[in-house]
Predict the structure.
Amino acid sequence: MQSHTTSRDMPLHRFLRETLFRETTRICGLICAAIVVTIFAFLLWFSWPLLAQGKIATIVSLAWRPFHGQFGILPMIAGSLSLAIPAMLLAFPMALGITLFAHGLGPRLPGKAVLTLVHFMTSIPTVVYGFAAVFLLIPLLRATFARGSGFSWLAAMLTLTVLVLPTIVLFIHTHFSLVEPQVTRTTQALGMSDTQRLLAVTLPLSRRGLLAGGILGFGRAMGDTMIPLMLSGNAPIMPGSPLASMRTMTAHIALVVATDSQDAAYYSLFACGIILFLTTFAVNLGLRWLESSTSVRT
């Protein structure tokens, strides 16, 4: 009698538990969506004084001279893109090489040591990367090129490359770890070596993961504030050369917020915020498309 009651109660218990979990996650999802919509509305609300006064043309211009009523943020948009794209072009092949080395192209123990080091790099605060670059990379650039102060696009780009590298490595590593157990026995039965398995089977099957890792790394590079703020020189001009100063949108927001909170220059920051918001939104849409595409193929 007791065992019959227990078997009858278990499905009810499981049903209640699953229903509670499903409804809790649904509520959490709605709260997150409401927060995102609120942030976007907040940005639009504070941008409205400039938009209502017809000053949108002054924002989408090249000149940032707040004392003359010019609040152009195009140099900062160009600075963010010119920093994030080269950093990704440099970091992605390095991340792919590190992951392939750790998954069989290199010796087993050094491969594990490299992955351990990459995990450790993710725990280092961004400001530490910035400090290390100020005391190591900046003097090296100054001595090598004998031009400028060393605080430049090149210094920020190289440091940002190191910063986003662990993010991409760990994402690709996770995807490789999902694919390899499914193909290892088959490739071993076919007499393929570890190198052949990685390059001919695992890598093509992981192309969606590679794309997603690249998108995440790009979003990380676009959104970082500390590295451009500490190393790029923060000149609100279009990037002219690798050794020239420049300013990104994130660094621009941090600098202006620290010194101004009243006039039109302050409100122009919310236009920067909207552009960063839409960039992040586009990155997330790209990830969702990749996930849905992968699930359909599976």
In short: The first strand starts at residue 64 and ends at 65.
